[in-house]
Amino acid sequence: MEKKDIASYSFEELKMEMERIGEKAFRAKQIYEWLHKKLVDDFSEMSNLSKTLREKLDAEYEIRKVEMVTRQISKMDGTNKFLFCLNDGNMVESVLMKYKHGNSVCISSQVGCRMGCRFCASTLDGLERNLTPSEMLRQIYQIQKISGERVSNIVIMGTGEPLDNYDNFLKFIHMISDEHGLNISQRNITASTCGIVPNIRRLAEEKLQITLALSLHGSNQEKRKSLMPVANKYHLPEVLEACDYYFEKTGRRITFEYSLVHGVNDTKEDAAELIEILKSRNCHLNLIPVNPIKERDYQKPDKKSAENFKNKLEKNGINVTIRREMGSDIDGACGQLRRKSMQGV
Ligand code: SAH
To answer: Tag placement on the chain: N or C end, fewer CB within 10 Å?
Structure first.
């Protein structure tokens, strides 16, 4: 029988599970803290539990491993990129970025992705499977342990679409911000979505304090559709309405992401349309010069035209930044490292 993934139980679930196996509820607190605060890898390290209990746990449960395969450190900005191997041999990648205000980790939410965005390396081979809550959590735990750095911010912007793995993603958010675990403030967490409308609305009802980032990439329905197949299903106006609803329910300002692709979505007309969409909204716009992947012929605009694009928006009162490129010497773009390793190059 396959052992149960103990680190995917929320605190409440672990309490019920301990009761079910005839243990006192306070054991759940101890075990949860070993797993999610002290970040141990093995039941044998849980020194305030009896040997009998440790053996009992070991027989029925496992602490699923997320093992480091490679770690690349950027010479340009100190960004660390990790490739991790999961229980079943699948690989995921995560990134540690060091900023003045603290350390930020970018995690993956799925193995592969089925959303098909044209410029993205993570989606080229489709979706393999969802990540469990423990596999999302452990990317962060491992990075904290390996680097010795405390993680203060989390972005769910690695491989995968978090709202296509809704239940596990939601549980992950509750567990990473649980006071019995790393207790990372939800205000320091950003989740990025390509725009799965019903799940944006569901998320708005969860009363979370996380920031939602919406991948826009096109300033009208047609253009967005040409870059993002998901736009066939959820049209731009309803995506924007769902974002407004999220803001209304949570009071959290939306971040819009816009990958600048030379000659595709970086023209004057694009800027003008973007202004129309964003000017009435209390939001932030993040411009990301596209990171070219070899399977597609998309190029980034030069620095000057990216600046011009930004200035046009700024002049019209849009709150906008160009995302600083980090780790571009270490396959920084989504899914590039995992892909390289799968292809053995
Ligand atoms: N599935 C989520 C998370 C994806 S990654 C989403 O779609 O939002 C986070 C951001 O990086 C998204 O906005 C995504 O569109 C963008 N992205 C992916 N590949 C990129 C590339 N090669 N260059 C620039 N941005 C990219």
So the answer is: N
